[in-house]
Amino acid sequence: MSSITYSERIKIETFYELGLTNIQMAERLKRSPSTISYELSRCQPYQAELAQANAEYKRAHCGRKTKLNAKLKQTANYKFNPNKPGNFQWQSVDDGFLMVVD
């Protein structure tokens, strides 16, 4: 299923303040109790706004990290510079272009 929305986080905060259990919250939101448990662990005491900021930060910083450092990037830009004559030429193919190295 998709990520928890901000409106769901507000509901979780309200349910938490009312003293509902994780199972009761999960049933009302049609989510797994473990999802509710994980969500409540984002910050103590639970606040929807902080939990949303935490989730957005984690999402922005997830995924594979680049191994391309500044020197390697500069080298690649130099070697495959389209303005540098004689290195390669562009050939049209079905949906785009293909780079052919001389």
Give a brief outline of the structure.
Helix content is 51%, strand content 12%. The protein has 5 helices and 2 strands; from the N terminus they run αααααββ.
What does this molecule look like?
α2 (22-29) crosses α3 (33-40). β1 and β2 (96-101) form a beta hairpin. The chain has helices at 6-18, 22-29, 33-40, 48-60, 70-79, and strands spanning 88-93, 96-101. The protein is elongated, with a radius of gyration of 25 Å. It has 102 residues and is mainly α.
Total beta strand runs: 2
Mean of the pLDDT scores? 82
From the helix content, strand content and strand pairing, which structural class follows? Answer: mainly alpha
Radius of gyration: 25 Å
Helix residue percentage: 40-55%
Describe the strand arrangement of the main beta sheet, using strand numbers: 1-2
Specify the overall morphology. elongated
Please report the number of helical segments.
5
Can you give keywords for this protein?
mainly alpha, 12% strand, two-stranded antiparallel sheet, 51% helix, 5 helices, 102 residues
Furnish the topology, listing elements before pairings.
Blueprint: H1 6-18, H2 22-29, H3 33-40, H4 48-60, H5 70-79, E1 88-93, E2 96-101
Antiparallel strand pairs: 1-2
